[in-house]
Amino acid sequence: MFCGVDIGGTNVEVGLVSEDGKLLDREGLKTGKFYSAPDLVLAIAESILRMTKQSRQPLEGIGVGCPNGRGDQGVMVEAANLPFKGIVPFVDLFKQYFPDIPVALANDANAAAIGELYYGKGQGLKDFVEITLGTGLGSGFIVNGKAVDGANGMAGEVGHMVMIPGGRPCGCGRSGCLERYVTASGIVATYNELCQIHHHEPEIGNYKDLCDLAGQNDPVAIEAFGQAGKMLGWGLANIALCTAPSHIFLYGGVALGAGDYLLKPTLRSFDAHLLYSYRGSVRLEFSGLLGRNGAILGAASLPRQLR
Amino acid sequence: MFCGVDIGGTNVEVGLVSEDGKLLDREGLKTGKFYSAPDLVLAIAESILRMTKQSRQPLEGIGVGCPNGRGDQGVMVEAANLPFKGIVPFVDLFKQYFPDIPVALANDANAAAIGELYYGKGQGLKDFVEITLGTGLGSGFIVNGKAVDGANGMAGEVGHMVMIPGGRPCGCGRSGCLERYVTASGIVATYNELCQIHHHEPEIGNYKDLCDLAGQNDPVAIEAFGQAGKMLGWGLANIALCTAPSHIFLYGGVALGAGDYLLKPTLRSFDAHLLYSYRGSVRLEFSGLLGRNGAILGAASLPRQLR
């Protein structure tokens, strides 16, 4: 049995996961309630102890997924959406409470990739890419059965590939990045642009509304997903040329919410942009973790790469 | 002592390389003289035996670099510029003459990357990317000290990243691929386009002439390299986000010929397009194999990854 801890800007999810990927128990915390990382880790440790006491199984490892996590160093670095500034040594903080249990950490996209490897469609695969689509676009590269950290510990920041030089301004300080067109806010922005072009009153407040509108066959909403898919398929076809994965898995709230409205145009564009000699050797599909507490499963899988 | 065999469309180079990367002896063959792969391998084997007899050192391995080589299978697949069609089992062919010596094969870009790792600036590095610039743009990814083959054995075809949808037609059947703008013929095409725009009579026949013209401070030639560098820096900044290499090395005849005329605008564009948080963690520079019989050194390094 492993414990997965997913630390996000709003919520912290803590869960116990069996060897074969069943969620045995879980608890949630509000990130904003904690003013320091040691306070947060103390509360998480109490939560883990409470749950393990009830489960009566031995705990084999703890995995922590967080934004800007550096797996090689076991720390989180300057995560913009979290109240803890600077470098947070999460692995060391957990080790204070669990000195005899392996503790591993990764950024959330790498955690999703490793979760896919152990609990999702990545089982038995050696080379694949996990794409997480949410407020940002993250990715985790699996090469030869191992997650790639890269020399700076930040491999997989493909959401910031510049697709359109001089395009939409990005929070990273540059413009035209892939994630500005294919994340929740990006697709909503495209919808609003299309409404202006069509002199059509925008009917939505957020991404969920846009998904609902597409579900009602609204042509402007469907076109917004079509444009996002075009950009995403193009970007993924370029990415595939680097490490030649056998699969690219789409994961995250944006993928879950949009379903085929996003997947179908993405597949069309991926096929159109992929190098012909790669055709048939790279499959693009939804993650096996979608709708399955993937963040906890991903975090819980991390200590398994330490073995 | 290792033997490196570089099989190209025009020439085959065979060389003996010492453990520390010195070229001890070499011979060359004309690819076009051989009507079948077994004939070619027989001639290469004779050449190797001749050279090893003279050198009196034991041969520890043979490495073969070739276009469309699949390292995992030891074969060359449908290489367009070679007279041997279909799947050529080079490793097995060499094994007939050298049954007791390790034989390894890779595509030429991966061979250059592995050569960089053992004999060039890659010594001691774990994560880097080798870019080969010639008639095409190839690349080899080193992740955790190992060359990436990918699921299809063809990782690193980044010359076919689509940069400009609907851009210049590419030999791959699509359009707007990176290599159409940054290889020898691509940069010459840009020069010719610029001449048309400036109503300027083109003064060159080939890439070498263009390099000479830039050396004479011809502003149109310099502008052609400037545009190529802009595109190359943009593409490399996108690639860097996948595996977060510590270095990207530029190798090949185009890089050697152009020198700073290409490197300087490439560096400017790379800096402008690279994600800010990656700055300082990825260095872009010329390969340590440039002008050093890199193709033979690269091939000779391949059996060392088998150890």
Assembly status: homodimer
| Estimated radius of gyration of chain A | 20 Å
The count of DSSP E runs of length 2 or more, i.e. the number of strands of chain A, is 13
Query: Largest chain-chain contact?
Result: A-B, 44 and 44 residues
Return residue spans of chain A where pLDDT drops below 50 for at least 5 consecutive residues. Answer: none
Q: Work out the strand percent of chain A.
A: 15-25%
Number of helices of chain A: 10
Class derived from helix and strand content of chain A = alpha/beta
Which bin fits the share of residues in helices of chain A? Answer: 25-40%
Global morphology of chain A? globular
The side-by-side strand order for the widest beta sheet of chain A comes to: 3-2-1-4-8
Largest β sheet strand count, sense and barrel closure of chain A: 5 strands, mixed
Q: How far is the first residue's CA from the last residue's CA of chain A? A: 14 Å
Mean pLDDT of chain A: 95
Secondary-structure element string of chain A: EEEHEEEEHEHEEEHHHHEHHEH
Sum this structure up briefly.
The structure is a homodimer of 307-residue chains. In chain A, 39% of the residues lie in helices and 21% in strands.
